[in-house]
Amino acid sequence: MIQRIQSIFLFLVALISLLLVFLPFEQYSNGENTISLSLSPFSKPEGVANLIFAPVFINLALGILAIITIFQYKKRTKQLKIARGLMFTSLFMITSLLSIDFFHDDKAVWTKTYLWPSFLPIASVVFAFLAARSIKKDEELVRSADRIR
Prior knowledge:
The protein has 149 residues and is mainly alpha-helical. It is built from four helices and three strands. It has helices at residues 5-22, 53-70, 76-98, 120-148; strands spanning 26-29, 34-37, 111-114. The protein has a three-stranded antiparallel sheet with strand order 2-1-3, with no helix packed on it. The longest helix is centred in the C-terminal third of the chain and has 29 residues, at 120-148. The mean pLDDT is 80.
């Protein structure tokens, strides 16, 4: 039963997590230099603090958990708990991305620009919510069918 609608929503959560690894989500510039930040664990621009690694690992965990959750279709209650956890993990990742100060004490004035991939974690929260809602509907349907027997 991998072809259910919640599997599509969970796949979209994993796809968003993968996109955030490759696409820059913020851009800093001071007139002459421009630095783009992505959640790639392999690249770290100069001047970026180590605080960027917390959202990197949260993002990777989010993608891996979304894929694992797709294959938990026989255990709907467990799948529902993990999907709700994905939703709260996505919210935590959004807050950690917004609260990071990337630059050390530098005298230059840096202007911060949010790029369009910075809004993808919000879509991830929405898809995780839709997946949890669909899983709950499936569980209610199965329980109502058990009552009829």
